[in-house]
Amino acid sequence: MKLKCITLLSGLFMISSTTFAQTVSTDQINAIKNDTRMLRIAIAINDQKLELAKLQNQVSEKTEDVDKATKASQSAADVNQNNATILNNDDLDKKKAHKARKSAQSAENSSSKARKAQGRLEDLNKDIDQLKKDIAENEEKLNAMGGSQYVHPAS
């Protein structure tokens, strides 16, 4: 008896819950989907702006690295030139030849480091430019969808 009563009550509950369920029109569903797409694009723009700020903060550090590497390279080249001149005056001296060879290797390594630092700075600037383009494209896409309220102006 209890089992019958419980099954009857649960059956009535299921029937009543389905009859009282609200119906959602396809327009509402499409509006919700559109809002979801706009929010996803707005989140992507926000993430891209954060990444852009991080990269822009690295520019001064990379520029300093390039300056230091360039100065070190120039200094090593000057030392190499000086040692080469000394060796030229006494080309049979093994110690002077060894010193000139070591300074030439140092100058080569320093110039390589300077070129790599310059390349990293150029790559960083390319990444910043690409990220700015991506942000502009996403903002344009969001505005076309009518989501301009989700876009925060750059400060």
Walk me through what this model shows:
The protein is built from three helices and no strands. It is mainly α and 155 residues long. The protein has a domain at 36-141.
Give a brief description:
The protein has 155 residues and is mostly helical.
Give a quick set of tags describing it.
about 160 residues, rod-shaped, 3 helices, about 0% strand, mainly alpha, single chain
Helix-strand blueprint:
Layout: H1 2-19, H2 26-89, H3 94-144
How much beta, percentage-wise? under 5%
CA-to-CA gap between the ends? 72 Å
Q: Given the C-alpha coordinates, what overall shape results?
A: rod-shaped
| Individual helix count | 3
Amount of helix: over 70%
Contiguous runs where pLDDT drops below 50 for at least 5 residues: none
Instruction: State mean pLDDT (0 to 100 scale).
Output: 85
Any idea what the radius of gyration is?
A: 34 Å
- Tally of strands: 0
Write down the secondary-structure element order.
Answer: HHH
Largest sheet: none
Indicate the structural class. Answer: mainly alpha
